[in-house]
Amino acid sequence: MIESVCYLLLGMGAAFCAYRAMISNHLLPSTLYLACVSALASITLYMLGAQEVAVIELSVGAGLVTVLLVYAISVVGEDNLDPSSIIPKPLAFVLVSTIAILAASMVYPLLTSVNGAEQVPLAQVLWKERALDVWVQVALIFSGVMGVLGLLSEKEQKNRSHEEVIPSVELEKEVHV
Amino acid sequence: MTAILVSLVIGIPWIGALILWRTSDEAPRLQHTLAVAFSIAAGLSSLALLPYATSNTVIDIPMGSVFGNLTFTPDGLAVTLTIIACVIGSLAVIFSVDYMKGEAQLSRYYAFVLLFIGAMAGLVLSGSILFMFFFWEITALCSYALISFYNDDPKAVAGGIKALIITQVGGVGLLAGALITYATLGSYQISDLINNTESMPANLLGLIAFGFLLAAAAKSAQFPFHTWLPDAMEAPTPISALIHAATMVNAGVYLLARFYPAFVHVPGWALSVTIVGLISALITAFMALTATDLKRALAYSTVSQLGYMVYAIGVGGFFASQFHLLSHAVFKALLFLAAGAVIHAAGTRDMRRMGALGRQMPFVRNVFILGALALMGLPILNGFWSKELILEMGLTHGPLWAYVGMLLVAGMTAFYTLRMTWLVFFGKAREALHVHETGIAMKISLGLLAIGTFTTWLLAGPFSHMLQQTLVFHSVTELTTLELVEEILFTPATYGALAVVTLGLGIFWLGRKQAAVGKEARFDILSRESFGFEWLNRQVTSLTLQAGSALQKTQTGKLNWNVMGILGALLAVLAFLLWSA
Amino acid sequence: MTLDPLNAVLIGVILLLAVGFYGLLITRNLIKIVLVLQILVKAVVIALVLAGKASGQPGLGQSIAATVIVADTIVAVVALALAVQVRIRFGTLDLSKISSLRG
Predict the structure, then answer these.
(1) What's the pTM value of the predicted model, to 2 decimals?
(2) Which domain range does residue C44 map to?
């Protein structure tokens, strides 16, 4: 029962932080709240017995992604307030809560703790049973890095030449309005 | 050995297509030579396949559980059509050496022609419905690309798009049939489908049968899809001869013939096939009566003759339809190529501007007359035997009203064929066109095809023997050529049909003075509009465009609305799952 | 009323998913979208581990969760690089202004 309460509190905390991250008008606090979500999620993962995943989540999710977000915000600038939503908020709220209730009611009866399940080490699953797609992941990471390098180098060229290819005068105007 | 030959028949043209695609347009001589070499090699290997015709599957490559096996079965039916595709293909390529002299972008032209020849061979040889669909679509692609070969001409582009879209509609029918087959039997093999028709649910079998009829009608330009073929005449004439007269349009007839044993017991199927054939033959013969464009007139007559073949399958004359297919491929390719020679020399396709060209081009005139006589169905050319065989099958096995309709078509065919010949080669010269006799490459292909119109009917005996030996599911009664001749000559129906043909000829002869009148009567407009089917096509197009612009409103490009759509779909799925559980 | 621990986790997952979806619906800022996607992925990672545990194959669930984290990080990196480019070229991060579709 204690375990359940712990999970519940962790889940609520994570959801609360996520909510704060979402509604905050500034990007930097949002990022910090996201890091909190990540940390709470990784505690949950740890308690669920997925220690390795928890570590990856903590280092990558809370660490790397936060750093990246902060870097991006520092390039972009903090001045971008989130404008008002296009979709009416009540409509969005009703839609999302209906889906949440339906999904929860479908999954809820299916979940029961399984005791004495055989414990296959994660490493074995990763490198023995799923060898192929782990290598695909490596290729994916590599291509991701290459893509970002490409995008950033393109940016530097732009800054050096100071040529705005796409006329953004009109767009700028809209921003100020 | 057979496996090697089958892969050669498909592989040689495709390798040739690849090589020609990469050749430079600066060296047209090299391109002509390469294209002729590859197409003749393909033609020879297809002829070499003839003695090896077998009902066994000679190539069987597993392509994974979802795609089934890629199989090739060179039985008599498949081998015959392969030979038609490859041999007439090589003749069309030889003809192109003169016809396309000096044209730009020959690499594109020849690459698509060779790709088409290989795909057509694959389509008929394939033993798997899924891969048949694959080759089917390649032929549609080649047809489109070659109709629109002169891609700076808006009419050519429009004609190509029209052909592509209409044949795609048919392709959907074929794909649906293939998928339903796979869903019920777990196999794409044609033999599995024909073997298991009794155990299949009747409604699913009916779906497959009518899906395939849709595919065949669209591919063979049969009613109600007959509007694309006349517009496809913007293609270079060798293409019209090869793809739109001799081979690709036969794919629909082939499909019906191939699956005839599976679908013959589906209620209403055979009758529908008969009616489709009858209506197509009738209305396009009407349109051909007043057509003024030489190639369009030939296109109408192609649809009309394909209607004969479809009708023959509907009344159960499997052999008659395939025999007519063979005859038609030869004499219609001849007519188209001869027409191409005329158009090439005269620089116009309008028959009202021609006349008395026969004096200047005697060779073309002579071969055209041979083709025309075969098309009319006059003895002893190949068209006579096969058409009479179909009419006899129709009289003995089919409904009488359909037979009367087809007899009428035979008379109209005689009328418009004579009209065509008269307007182009005889009468008075209405314009001073400076034409010249054709080149040597054109003469070779025309001459070979002209010999074919005399001789291919002699193959009826061996042909039926081969079909009888190698087709497992079709019941073909073997008959020798002599038996065929006796059967046709001693049937009173033959003379009835000949009388109708003579009547058609006589009516034209009496009214030949009016034939070249340039004015367009009300009837002509009706013909040009395909009895309202052009209107129908335009309606479908404009409805699609309207629906497109209406649906455009939903694409705001705003991410939030897209997410909203995704979540709405998720909600619908969840609600459905809960409701069904 | 007793609450199974797995169901307690489920409630957390559903809440996180709901917040994420809501965020996707109302947010227009491109960087914020990336951030909200991260929230959704956290929920999915927990759900995968949870599903592995409930179905008796924890190793499989965890390995897929690890895959998802890696893939998602790549997505976040590329998306952020794109967002920076968008900001530089268009002068705004507002998604509704970047779109060139005029439905």
Answers:
(1) 0.73
(2) 5-94
